[in-house]
Structures
1.
Amino acid sequence: MKTFPTSAVWCFGILFISVSLITTGSSEVQVVGPADRVVALAGDDVILPCSLKPNVSAEDMAVEWTGLYLKTRNVHLYRQGRDSNEEQFTSYRGRTSMFHEELKNSNFSLKLTRVTLSDAGSYRCFIPTLTSQVKNTTVQLFVGPAPIPSPAVPVLSMSLLRLLCSLLVGSPYLLVTIILLVKGCRSRTQGETRVPRKTHQDQLGEFLPYNTTAAGSHYGILNTVCTILYYLLVEVETRMD
């Protein structure tokens, strides 16, 4: 009766164990998450991916979503076929949900709405009922500040100005009147600059200028009107070019 050499028996045993381990490892269900971090802006809704590989039905399984940076850590809990968030962290209440219809496809992803800057951090998806060695995965969430809206541009004044310009272009007589008025304003302003300032003599014999505040207010109004008409004329000339 022939007997196998001892070395051959050992080699066969090691080969059998190796094949068994490879087969077992390849069929073991594992929890997997995203390869990269999840990025969102404050105020957005975001999904934290978590699933099983290979794909198996997970309707009867439990899942615990926790924040690794939180003291109480409880972000969302699903067990016995329903959400169980009695001990959920306060800031997450009303903002978390799971895709129950996708549990049959081993999808444990968590949806987080109205993301805030304080939500940024590491989240763990843990499947306690799983018999595999890899029962959890970690998801990194980065939250950036929401973009600041640009201030509203005051378009009413420009729209009104363009409307007036359109009217002026369509009415030559009105345009000529405006041009003559602007020239008159310029002539009046230039003439006023050549008028010498009047003075009066005080008790000490010193000459002081008159208080022209009241009179100056009328000229200020006139100058304002002239300025508006001037820019209006420039806009009209631009439109005509």
2.
Amino acid sequence: MVKNISLNEPEPTHMVDYRKPITENKPAETPNFRQAGYSASSSDGMASGSVSTPAPPPAFEGDSSFATQAVMAGELIAKQGQKSNEILDALSSLKDLMNTSSIDGVSTGFDDLYFDPDEKPKSLPEMELLPAQFIITILRKLKEYPSVHYLAYAMRDQMALERICQAVYFPTEPVSLGQLTTMHGLLLFLLEEYIALNDPILNGWDITAFLSLCQKNLHIGCQSYEILAVPHVDNVKALTLGVVFAQLSSKPLLAWTLCSAAARHVFTLGYHRERSLKSDPPKVADEKRHLFWSLYGVDKNLSLTLGRASNFQDFDIDTEYFSVSETEGIAPWDHASITFISLGRLQGMVYEQLYSATALKKSQAERHALIGNLDAQLRPWLEQWREVQSQMSRDVMAAIDIAYYSEYFDLFFGPTDIIYYSVQTTLHRAASMGEGVHTTEITAACFEAATKGLHCHLKFLPVFKKKMGSNNMDSYVSWFVTHYVSQVFPFPSVDLP
């Protein structure tokens, strides 16, 4: 099907370069790497040294937890028995029994992550680093031209890579495995972008080897026990990058595994509860919200695609959405991300109410009523999305000094209609399932949604080929097969009028 679609003009082999510099007059500054008295982590370009595990915050425990109840009881008894040494001694012993590692009597729980503290890794896994001069070169480029991939994958802080590279290449304190893994993940996406654009900045460097090295180091980190088991913001960032890369590599099960680990981390750290973020500076709290909701959207999509219960239970989440950027050029990207959070919530509802073990036991009458209700909630979402698209029109973007690529916005979010009709198809497919019912027959609504989705695909594919180039077609075909064809599997062929 892909090969049979032709264009009226020659197809580019690489992604079309629509980038514009942030400023036309001011040259990009050289990153401030070479500070007096600092040297690279090792002379042979290898990351080395002892493992740095930052002191973790208290593990989040809800109001029903033993630790929370014990603290509340202790406070009550302490008020009534301040003059009784026996009671105070008993309270002290209770706190010690709760956990050997505690903050104000609340267990951190993090010393339970290893059977024996002495078995914690004493050194970092060996990771070869990219040449420092190459890093400086691409960071200068990044300062001048914002990364398209960072925008598309909701990584708002364009220069986070610069700070983490400074920490790794010229450390003033021990570097954590989470930092190393995150750095290589960010570098990986940036290099893939420059390769897709055939950017001349890569000339003279062995980019194939560099790309392979970044992939290898991302793999090493994401597959390590420390990243998978220790709740820390750096590990969450590393896993999030791993999830995205696994999806792009057509490995949904791996993406689910990494996403599940990251989900455990953010819940352990309390990112799902607004009260846990109140004491953070606004910028830090917003970064945590951004991480949380990014994972939420991926999880809900994978949950429905793989037919597994979500790691994010909506009844236990009250954290607010992240704030929309005050920068005009980036605000529409934020609005788009927030809009997809609501779609993720609807995807979760489709699975829970129609495909979970409990849902499949409901009567056909109940299931049809649920399908109608969910469809009524899903339809307005598409109109909401149309409003976001209108904010990113080229006329609007033409008036913005700092350009954040309306052309790429249309490219990365172009498949939105395909995703929408995929969800709608899955929703109506449930009408043919239930207790004692499982048939390949489909309803008219299901067929209509599937047909519209395929039409949207045929409409978008030439746009993708024109803007992304023929060299990047594999990624689209993989995405389409994984995220759409799997939803319409009962129809081996659909004749389009």
3.
Amino acid sequence: MPSIRRYPCCPTWPHLVLFRTLMSSDHQPLPRVSFRDLPRRYGGASAEERKQQRRERLLDAAFEVFGRKGYKETTLRLICAQARMTDRYFYEHFESLDAIFLQVRQRLATELMERLLQASARPEPDPVLLIRHALTAFFEYVKEDPRRARVLLLDAMSFGLTSTEVAETRLNWYAQLIGGRLKARYPNLPPQLDFQLVASGFLGQVTYVATVWTLRKFDTPVDQMVDHASYAWMGLHHWLADYDASVPIRSAG
């Protein structure tokens, strides 16, 4: 059996050249970099990204628990258990149960507002049809997920957990949208008509109708709900039409 010739383990020639270059006196040493100076990433996410992910998980968990059990039966520990987090991470983002409830409600209100904007963006000259489009979007949004109705309609109203600033912003948007369409159709509207008060009354009416519908387990089809909720708008429409027709047309001269 021929013998195997063994060679001592030694660096290859290119490695020796690189080593001598690095060790030469005229070579500038490489800067020292501390790992503490580098942002830590776990699972491909930075610390700030993980923090945001935890917040989203808590909001998703809160929506699930609030929507399933209701505000009265919900506790901080139930939300943390749903999110699989400890209390420490909860208080990293929210100071109380009310605080996270308001955030969940605000998220839903923003989604609903986007639906209403899409429904109201149609070039519809008839204000009543425009209202029907918006009402259809509203009732469909509530019925699609009963948890939304629980948070937006039942608990927020029952326990007074709503933001006055958010409600005022939503009301102003609603009044401006409807008021602009009505003024364009009826140029002779009475100057004393306060569209914010009008919109407030109709918004309360629609909200209460939707609340009753929720308590009745959505037993009425959406199109019939739109019919019932739009009766008041139809009355306003006819009143404005009669008023507009009764105003004498001013001559151009």
4.
Amino acid sequence: MVAARAPSALACASAGAYAGGAAGWGRDPAEVPPAAPAPPPQAAPRPARRAAFFLPEPRGELQVPESRAFGGPRHAEKRALRPARMREDVDEEEEEALRAICEKAAARAAATFTAAMLQAPEPRTPPPPLRTRAAEAPPRDGAAKAPWDAGQGDGGLWGAVCLHRVAASPAYIRPAGGLAMTCSGGQELGIDLETLQQRLEQLITLLPPLRGKVANMRPALCAALLRDPQQLAQRLVQCRTALPHVDAANLFGQQPDLLLKGTADLVASVEAVARLLGTDGATMQALASKHPRLLDGTAVEEVLTEMRRYVPSKDPRQALLDDPTWLLRLERGPRRLGPHPDDAC
């Protein structure tokens, strides 16, 4: 058995140094409490910001920098640059007199302004009536009034249109049939309002889609449709017999002037456009019911010509049959607009 060796002097010195460094000389390291952790660094408190919209600035004397104050260095430099005759100091009495003069002038200006504001406005003369060349132009025939004269009664075009629009207002609508009384159409036909009301009811009974279009219809067209409702009924029957695939109500409701054409003319138009587009009569009748403009052979030829120029990769006839709205997009109408400007070049 090996005997325990006594600690050497160096070991005792090392232990004492450790104990002295950790908890002081002469103390046991086990008796020294552990050091507390250092607190985390805290940011410096931000200065409180005053709400500028709620806390007004304290009102005190205006603090002027010394360089800008009266008598300061900057002011002295400016005074040194002035001419000698302007460097003299102003007398206090003279300054008081000048201040009094300024106050009196300000009071006089304020009184003048107040009196001008309280004064009643002067009556203004109305401007002269507008003079136009059309209103001052002489009549065409020398006897009748100009057609744009709205007050000439029944004889003028503009007067008839005005009467037609006024008669189509809700004040002239009767509750029995909800029809607008077209005064100009009745005046052109020479019938009274009662007869006009009856014929309007007969027309709406034949073609219900015309109920909302009578008020916006041209007076001449309205008068032609109301001239003989019985004849219109016969034309509708003949059209349905000759063109069985045509929706007469939709066709004549969109384009009422087709009622004034004879049945033979309608059949000829349908056959001509069908040959132009290379389709059968039944298909053409169905398309014409939805797009009455297809019955205009001249317009269809124009559109086919334009489609050959704009869409050369497609068959224009088949494209127009698939989408008849091409007729509205490409139709120019030389009969209404004149020749194409490119043709003159």
